[in-house]
Design goal:
By secondary structure, the protein is of the alpha+beta class. It has one domain (about 5-70). The protein is about 55% helix and about 10% strand. Helix 2 runs antiparallel to helix 3 (about 50-60). The longest helix has 20 residues, at about 25-45.
Length: about 80
C-alpha cells in the first residue's frame, strides 16, 4: 500500500506533530498483545484465514509496524503565562 516509514512521515507526522520511529521492545509487546487478542477473537468466530494472516504479522512485528510518538514541544520561557 506504499505505507512506508517515509510515506507516513510525509503524510501524517508533519501536521500531527508526531515522529515515526521503529518499534521499541515495549511497542512490540503492545502490538503482540493487541493483535493477539484480535487473532483469538477471529478464531473464535471461525475466521481462520483472517486470523492466520494477522498471526503471520505477529511473528516479526518490527517488519510490519512502526510507532507514532508525539513530539514534545518546549515552551518558550520568555512567554509569561500569568
Amino acid at each position: 500500500m506504499g505505507l512506508t516509514k517515509e510515506a507516513l512521515q510525509r503524510r501524517i507526522a508533519k501536521g500531527a506533530k508526531i515522529s515515526i520511529t521503529n518499534l521499541t521492545s515495549e511497542g512490540k509487546q503492545d502490538i503482540k498483545e493487541l493483535l493477539g487478542q484480535y487473532v483469538a477473537l477471529l478464531q473464535e468466530q471461525g475466521q481462520e484465514e483472517e486470523a492466520n494472516q494477522l498471526a503471520e504479522l505477529l511473528k516479526q512485528p518490527e517488519q510490519h509496524f512502526v510507532q507514532a510518538v508525539p513530539v514534545k514541544e518546549q515552551a518558550d520561557p520568555s512567554v509569561s503565562t500569568e
